[in-house]
Input
Amino acid sequence: MKQPSITLQDLECLEHLRNVGRLVTEMAQFQDSNTLHRDPAQQLQLTSLVSLMTAQLDGVVERCNQLWLGGENNA
Output
C-alpha cells in the first residue's frame, strides 16, 4: 500500500507555522488596541496578510492530517 506523502514531522512543522501565525496575529491585534502606530493602514495590511497566511496553513494542516490519518488507517 502506498504511504502518505506527508510525514508526522511535516505535519508538526505546519502546525508550528500555523501557531506562529496565530501568535503574530494576536500580538498585532493587541498592539492595535493599545498603542498608536506610525501607519495604521500598513499595520492593517500586515495583520490581514498574517491572518490569510494562518487561514491557509489551517487548511493545509487539516488536509495533511486527513491524508496522514487516512494513510495510517489504510496501512
Summary: The mean pLDDT is 76. Helices lie at 8-34, 40-74. The radius of gyration is 17 Å. Residues 4 and 71 are 6 Å apart (CA to CA).
